[in-house]
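Propose amino acids for all 308 sites.
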């Protein structure tokens, strides 16, 4: 299983890895290996560096296993080069081969592809993820790249200010960030601060700019999220739907982002909604156009208490 440890630069991710593997105490975790962001190689040949862990474990067929990992990482042509003469990307591949060769049960990766170009990074990432899955290697993969974390991870850990603040599947964390700070770091759109009130068995979120119904939450100060994909746009109010919220708004911007448009709408609060090109044309979306936003009460995710 791959666990992505995601957080901004300076959040403490590398320190966390060093603590997990035991570098701070000097008691290294057995059957584990780590690849640092800046490769730590000895002044030996590439082959000799890759073979080090195998020799330490008194493994059999050291030369054969070394050749296998050099080939796997496409650096067999560098076998006789001195490690200290390598480029940054080449050195990272050697460090990765050295970590994988002894077949560790636990693998710690500290942004292992930071010195590779995007094409090489994607190809190697795919190969490595396949191997990790096939060998059932428990992996903690540090990254500050949200897209990378979401595509490679089975589990996501969010670290802010040297603390693990949320753990879950990537989908759960993105859909239900635990705090406003996490939502802000993840770049979640449509996050609002206000107050929850219970009325006649129903719960409403409101502030001095907007009001809509929610399906959860306890009365009091709160932050809420309405994800862009849960919002339907229409020229007129929708009828005959189970959605309890229909808000009039005015388009303030329409930005192309490839196959879709990002639409910014002022409905009291500023909403962002993604629509297809066809939907944009059908609704004649342009700055100044009047539009209705419709979403279910269950689409409103309550984060928790706000600090007023």
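Proposal:
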């Amino acid at each position: 299983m791959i666990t992505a440890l995601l957080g901004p630069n300076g959040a403490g991710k590398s320190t966390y890895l060093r603590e997990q593997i035991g570098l701070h105490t000097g008691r290294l975790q057995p059957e584990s290996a780590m690849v640092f962001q800046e490769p730590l190689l000895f002044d030996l040949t590439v082959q000799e560096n890759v073979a080090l862990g195998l020799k330490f474990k008194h493994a059999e067929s050291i030369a054969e296993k070394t050749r296998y990992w050099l080939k796997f990482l496409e650096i067999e042509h560098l076998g006789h080069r001195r490690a200290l003469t390598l480029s940054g990307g080449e050195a990272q591949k050697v460090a990765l081969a050295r970590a994988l060769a002894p077949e560790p049960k636990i693998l710690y990766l500290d942004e292992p592809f930071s010195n590779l170009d995007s094409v090489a990074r994607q190809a190697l990432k795919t190969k490595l993820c396949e191997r990790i899955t096939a060998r059932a290697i428990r992996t903690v993969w540090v990254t500050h790249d949200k897209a990378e974390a979401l595509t490679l991870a089975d589990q996501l850990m969010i670290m802010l200010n040297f603390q693990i603040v949320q753990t879950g599947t990537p989908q759960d964390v993105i859909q239900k960030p635990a705090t406003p700070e996490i939502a802000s770091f993840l770049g979640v759109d449509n996050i609002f601060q206000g107050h929850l009130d219970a009325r006649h068995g129903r719960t409403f979120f409101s502030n001095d700019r907007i009001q809509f119904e929610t399906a959860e939450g306890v009365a009091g100060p709160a932050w809420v999220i309405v994800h862009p994909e849960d919002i339907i746009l229409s020229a007129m109010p929708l009828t005959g739907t189970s959605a309890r919220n229909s808000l009039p708004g005015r388009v303030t911007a329409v930005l192309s982002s490839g196959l879709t448009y990002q639409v910014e709408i002022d409905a009291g609060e500023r909403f962002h909604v993604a629509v297809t090109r066809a939907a944009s044309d059908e609704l004649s979306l342009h700055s100044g156009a009047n539009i209705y936003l419709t979403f279910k009460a269950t689409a409103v995710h309550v984060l928790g208490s706000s600090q007023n």
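The chain has two domains: 2-180, 191-304. The mean pLDDT is 92.
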